[in-house]
Amino acid sequence: MKCNVYKKCGSCQYINSDYKEQLNVKFEEYQSLYKDFKCKVHPVVGMNHPYGYRNKVIVAFNNNYEYGLYEENNHKIVPTQHCLLHDEEINKVLKVISQLLKKYHVSIYDSKKNRGFLRHVLIRRAVMTKQILVCFVATDQMFKGSKNFSNELVKAVPEVKTIVLNINKRQTSIVLSKEEKVLFGKGFIVDELCGLTFKISAQSFYQINHEQCENLYNKVIELVLQSKHDTVLDTYCGIGTIGMIVAKEAKSVIGVELNEEAYKDALNNAKM
Asked: How much is the average pLDDT of 92-105?
């Protein structure tokens, strides 16, 4: 599989390299980072199929309602209808959204002129439950026609279980603000990871690669826990995924998180 826009898109510099070569490049980089620590660096564990794994995608649109990522070092959109790394269902949702944005004449934000409505679209897909969350990042809380827009989107893609509007009025490269309102559904989706259930909102930190995340967390349990009497400190715990999975094997886990939304999600997940 080959990407036709990787030289323009400021994202995947190694996408067209042989996968084993990619893993070797990462391995050599890690070895150089740890050369002064006198510890063994193990080879990178790759995937069986290293495509279509991203369960979270953020794209921007141009005035022709083409979507993609930015060119490297500027805000020009590189149109990408089929990113090799995006979950295939997310690619389908983006096509529907593009059509609806055009139908409803939604204005696209211009960062140079600081005007326009839609800044970004963020999509999350729960790999195990198949639920999809769509978040529109905009400059105003008034989304004209949002009810009809949402109804059409859900009708076209029934897996979309919630739609959220994130209001970001700041002139910044940071995508999300703290201000949100729910346009459809409950404002979150639910996924299963390592046998546990987690609520995921637009602002939650959740590993983008479900398969490798489970491999990683199982390796953490193997390497970190020496006894069922251990107490584990999970710093930067996000919505609590790794801490709660480790908690099955430990005496107790203490999670530490600064982001208020992630902290709330972690509490809810712990209760579940």
From this structure: 97
